[in-house]
Amino acid sequence: MTQLEGVSSADVPAVARPNHAPGRSRVCDTTGLTVCLRAEPLIKINAVFGVVALLIGGIGAILIALTRWPAVHLLPAHLYYRVLTLHGVNMLIFWIIFMEIGILYFAATVLLRSRLASAKVGWIAFLLMAGGAVFVDWSILSGNADVMMTSYAPLKAHWSFYLGIVLFAVGALAAVGNFFATIYIAKRDRTYTGSVPLVVFGAIAAGIIAVVTLLHGALVMVPTLLWSWDLMAAPDAGWYRLVWWGLGHMSQQINVCAMVSVWYLLGTLTTGAKPINEAVCRSAFVLYILFINLASAHHLLVDPGVDAPWKIWNTSYAMYLAVLASMIHGFTVPASIEVAQRRRGFDRGLFGWLFKAPWSNPGFAAMFMSLLIFGFIGGITGVTLGTQQINIIAHNTLRIPGHFHATVVGGTTLAFMGLAYYVVPLIFRREYPLPKWCRAQPYIFGIGMVIMSLFMSFAGSYGVPRRHWDVEFSGAPLPAGFDAGAHVMLGIMGVGAVFAFIGLMMFILLTVWAVFFGKSNRGQPMRAWTPAPAKLADDDHHGAHKTPGTMALVLLLLFCFVVYYFANWKALADVWHVR
Amino acid sequence: MSITSPPANWFQKPTGGERTWLGLAIAWCLVLSAMMPYWHMKGKQNSTGEAYSVKPLDFFSRVQRFEAAYKVGEMNGVAIVQPPPGSDIYLQAMMWQFRPILKLKKDQTYRLHISSLDLQHGFSLLPMNMNFQILPGYDHVLTITPTQSGEFPVVCNEFCGIGHHLMTGRILVED
């Protein structure tokens, strides 16, 4: 029945039964999972709108990158700031959240074999989100909202910008509510027995964080909207920043949860990996829920009005438990793959399991590169820049987008791309064209992103600001500028961006082609990305849970982390004294 | 499997490599956390967020008085002021300039007040790459000691409208 190692009918307990009405479900020809036919079109439409936002944001990305590459300096100033606003909103909010809503629906219905709580709520939520997104994009493109994604008050946009964001957030909140209602129905109807699967657990964590995030969004955006209608005084600038980042950074934690869930999902689908210890993986998700709000404070570390004890406490809550959570997943995900690979007989040396991994499967390649980029670049830089005092030599420089392009793009976006190589064949039931191009795509995108985010970071170390049109400051009353090194960094950053953009366009063209014109695979299993792997040996196979390769990888990560972290303290110690 | 319900006895203590890594990661996270209070007490570079509420117009008049009292020259139409070491000094941010130009003494400590008359701005001192946030309504006080002499550009690094990239200032430090 199955060529996907992760699923077999033996795993499904006999007492649990799906709760679909007759004719409202289908059995997947590849995995044997039950797909809710009322959730399926919602999963599709959210994914499609996600990809549309990705396309808009992607066109914005290349225009911005070619403007910040000093030798090219493509756009005029006003268009640069406009396109930068467009890029941020479409990538960080629309692309990611549309995809996440699709993932939540998938996790609650397909993995729990439940019907969707309400198709009507699902469609209303989608229309609100889509309408909000159109409103915002129209507002930006018509020149009414050149305010960046953060729209820091008292910088003021046209009311349509704020209204669009509010509509989108309300829609997303309704969709998350629908997700939780579905979980409730599944539990009530006993469509599964025991605990929910790990991927669903991660999705629930993402859902909980999403609710808290979106409430922050309402708290900050509603007064701002009223201000834009002249019904309220301007919000206090410090207050706005504090609450906005409850939305702004927490929303990125929805991404982290969704991305880690996708790592586990793709690990299972591509190598048959199974978490070594579910308690450890689940506890790590709980740590995200409880402690992730600390990252919101990372944006206020050099702000006036919040004092040092506040900053120090809210940066770490005394022990960085959310960082611990990511470090745990950074071990458990590759460890589960190592165990599965070794049980298949790829047992040679420290890294035999990794070299023999299905690298020609774009789902696996995207997932594993996402893991490496998120951990080695995004994670290490993020924790370092989010250290209270080190933030002095990082705040609002290109080091910040250098960090989050490694987490949100090299991490989350790349993981979601890997997911698409399964979503399109399994949910849209269409095959991707040009398999060789598909196999190459994650590498081109991933390597481009690595170059771009690293050199963005390096340029930031010279003090090059983010969100800035002209590093030459030509025409400024008092001259300023950067030495040649910074220009070289920006140039290499531009080259990386071009690579990443090519990878992105390959992804979008291949996916759009597959969705609309791809060969249908109805009635048969999806075409395997790699030949069927060898069967897993028995669970009690000698040495089944030895993970020396993963241990070597995480020790390397820790080494890089320690070196980068203390190098930054050293750099900080060299600047002027300030209190 | 990560996509099917786990066996009933899934709640197990971590063992082997997982346990070792968990211990290492917790230890490292504690080091990360401890570094901040340590630096707050022993380090020379801290952001204490000292701030006072101020109306933009009041801040503007303080800057005017400060300029009038200590003006020693002009550069490209911007006043250069040389305040006595140890005093309260002012830097005003507005779309799209910083004023005045500050002339300071190396290794002397000043209480630098920065605020904005309009939008949010960023104080970025180059080439050291020291960055602080400037908010309207907040008189942000940095107790600052230049440790190098020379001419140091100040640039705005918080987006503040179409002329953002033209917003520069200057700090001069003498031995």
Could you explain how this protein is built, in words?
Chain A is mainly α and 579 residues long. Helices cover 65% and strands 1% of the residues of chain A. Chain A has helices at residues 40-68, 77-111, 119-141, 159-188, 198-228, 237-248, 250-271, 278-291, 294-297, 308-316, 321-343, 352-355, 362-385, 399-428, 435-461, 484-517, 548-573; strands spanning 25-27, 34-36, 577-578. A two-stranded antiparallel sheet of chain A has the order 1-2. The model of chain A has no long low-confidence stretch (mean pLDDT 92). The termini of chain B are far apart. The mean pLDDT of chain B is 95. Chains A and B meet through helix 2, helix 6, helix 7, helix 8 and helix 10 of A and helix 1, strand 8, strand 9, strand 10 and strand 11 of B. Strand 3 of chain A pairs antiparallel with strand 10 of chain B.
Task: Describe the secondary-structure layout.
The complex is a heterodimer of chains A (about 575) and B (about 180).
Chain A: E1 25-27, E2 34-36, H1 40-68, H2 77-111, H3 119-141, H4 159-188, H5 198-228, H6 237-248, H7 250-271, H8 278-291, H9 294-297, H10 308-316, H11 321-343, H12 352-355, H13 362-385, H14 399-428, H15 435-461, H16 484-517, H17 548-573, E3 577-578
Antiparallel strand pairs in A: 1-2
Chain B: H1 16-42, E1 51-53, H2 56-70, E2 71-75, E3 78-81, E4 88-94, E5 97-99, E6 101-105, E7 110-116, E8 121-125, E9 130-134, E10 138-145, E11 150-155, E12 168-174
Parallel strand pairs in B: 3-6, 4-7, 6-12
Antiparallel strand pairs in B: 1-10, 2-3, 4-5, 7-10, 8-9, 8-11, 11-12
